[in-house]
Design brief:
The chain is α+β, with helices and mostly antiparallel strands. The protein has one domain. The chain has 9 helices and 13 strands. A 6-stranded mixed β-sheet has the order 4-5-13-8-6-7. Strands 3, 9, 10, 11 and 12 form a 5-stranded antiparallel β-sheet that branches. Strand 4 and strand 5 form a beta hairpin. Helix 2 packs across helix 5. It is flat and about 90 Å long.
Length: 339
């Protein structure tokens, strides 16, 4: 239900134990979302200052590579072309979660108004962590590279934009993937590995086949950080990949750019509006909070006839981005599948 009527004292309903309430609010740690945030200041050091309002465009520039075949000999009148740069324009989306509380809704309730308010804040935080993890995971999947020059021990499926590794090579799935990154000139780097559940189970098993086992498979886990991203399973399934699907990204090549308006950061208060912010302990970000009051009859929703309804909004602007590349359809996000 959308109000607190189930817990009205008139029904003499016992309060749920905290353990049950906490279980109902559980959510997975948003590992994909948080991994984007690790490189925010590296990709755009000053974006918080530059973006003064939601409708202001922010542009970042990067130099473009100039790939040329080597010539032979020397010339007194050699000529060459000039270099170029490219623009990356971050695309922010404003995400929000809303709720309302009336002044008198706790008068006849086992919960205090503060407890109700805290419950709504907890719900808002949970909803953001679940929602942003979905957005971040979908971004990774949808922005996988369409260019992959590797051809050994696998085949690049240009329709699905995934490097397909034969199921017979399952024990070296990660090794083949990191070698493929090497072939694509990302050698010597640390890789973030986002694994769907099938790939996670296989990699976790292989990681624990150490030197004391009959077959040591742990050699391939150097230089990688593996994260379980369950939401990749459905996305992989849509491509008919069910044996294992993972995405590799060189560290430092993706970033998440959080932003909230200046008024929320400053804590502006007007006659009808309150602008503030709240720190989310799960991702460490400051979220914008906006509220306003209105006269309302809340007798049908746990309050009373002469009541005051306060509307709340929790919001955050997020832009998930990857490093720009000059080749069409090429990104630093590589997908791999066992087939």
């Amino acid at each position: 239900m959308a109000n607190y009527l189930p817990s009205v004292l008139a029904k003499a309903q016992a309060v749920l134990l905290n353990a049950f309430a906490n279980a109902d609010k559980r959510f997975r740690e948003p590992v994909v979302h948080k991994s984007f945030l690790e490189n925010s200041t590296i990709m755009f050091p000053d974006y918080q200052t530059i973006r003064t309002r939601e409708d202001r465009t922010v542009e970042a520039y990067a130099k473009v590579k100039a790939a040329r075949a080597l010539g032979t000999g020397r010339s007194h009148n050699h000529t060459g072309s000039k270099g170029d740069s490219q623009i990356l324009t971050p695309s922010w989306t404003t995400y929000n979660d809303t709720w309302s509380i009336s002044l008198k809704q706790a008068d006849n309730n086992v919960f205090s108004l503060d407890e109700m308010g805290m419950n709504e804040v907890e719900n808002g935080v949970r909803n953001f962590m679940v929602g942003l993890e979905t957005v971040a995971t979908t971004y990774l999947h949808n922005n996988r590279t369409g260019v992959n020059v590797a051809t050994v021990e696998g085949t690049f499926n240009a329709t699905n934009d995934a490097f397909e590794v034969p199921l017979a090579s399952i024990d070296r799935f990660l090794q083949i993937a990191t070698t493929t990154m090497d072939v694509n000139a990302y050698q010597g780097m640390q890789y973030m590995v986002y694994a769907d559940t099938a790939a996670w189970n296989r990699l976790n098993f292989q990681f624990n086949q150490g030197s004391q086992n009959s077959e040591n498979l742990s050699f391939q886990f150097g230089g990688v950080r593996i994260m379980h991203a369950p939401e990749l399973s459905a996305l992989a399934g849509a491509l008919t990949y069910t044996n294992g699907y993972m995405i590799l990204v060189p560290e430092g090549h993706i970033g998440g750019l959080p932003w909230i308006p200046r008024q929320n950061r400053q804590g502006i208060s007007t006659k009808e509006n309150e602008y503030g912010q709240i720190l989310n302990p799960f991702d460490g970000l400051a979220y914008a909070v906006h509220s306003y009051e209105q006269r309302s009859d809340q007798s049908a929703a746990g309050g009373y006839t002469q009541d005051v309804l306060t509307e709340f909004e929790l919001s955050l602007d997020m832009a998930y981005e990857h490093a720009p590349l000059s080749t069409a359809n090429e990104t630093p996000i590589f997908a791999f599948a066992l087939v």
